[in-house]
Amino acid sequence: LAKTTQPISMDSYEGQEVNITCSHNNIATNDYITWYQQFPSQGPRFIIQGYKTKVTNEVASLFIPADRKSSTLSLPRVSLSDTAVYYCLVRNAGNNRKLIWGLGTSLAVNP
Amino acid sequence: AAGVIQSPRHLIKEKRETATLKCYPIPRHDTVYWYQQGPGQDPQFLISFYEKMQSDKGSIPDRFSAQQFSDYHSELNMSSLELGDSALYFCASSSLTLNTEAFFGQGTRLTVV
Questions:
Q1: Domains in chain B and their CATH numbers?
Q2: Which end of chain A has fewer beta carbons closer than 10 Å to its terminal beta carbon, N or C?
């Protein structure tokens, strides 16, 4: 399973766009990139998942370059309620038996 | 939509006692995972089951055991509890067949005193 690396923490202000980049140099051909959000004392919540290029949903966008060795989660116009820890994971489609969690990014959104 | 249900939500036990945590996965999901998350730490993978068979094992202590039953619910049994076992325990489920992401329950907060 590919190891991921992401910034430990980020600060932002309400209304700004936040981009969190994750490195996954050893990603395999049938790996998917998945992002989760976690609030204190709550279970991780799925945000978005992608394989290549760009994926967008009502919450975020995920940008994946052609070599797939990194990905960027983009949160448009963040609010105070987006303050949370964001985890990037690489999920193997053919063997979805465990997820290895790296150090997430603690995002603080300030007024 | 149905989500992953965990019970109990909170549990307080004394040292050396036993605890049983339950997880009810999303219907038709074939994989269940258990994670432990200590204060300020990232989730640590404990064990997973695919179609009721143990599929992967992580950093699960020998004092812990888990199983998945015929109705697909899973239980994590923890014996000889130690203070260090105090943590949030999450269960997640996914469908390998449908290639879904993992959906997490709200967790059980175990406090060992």
A1: 5-112 (2.60.40.10)
A2: C
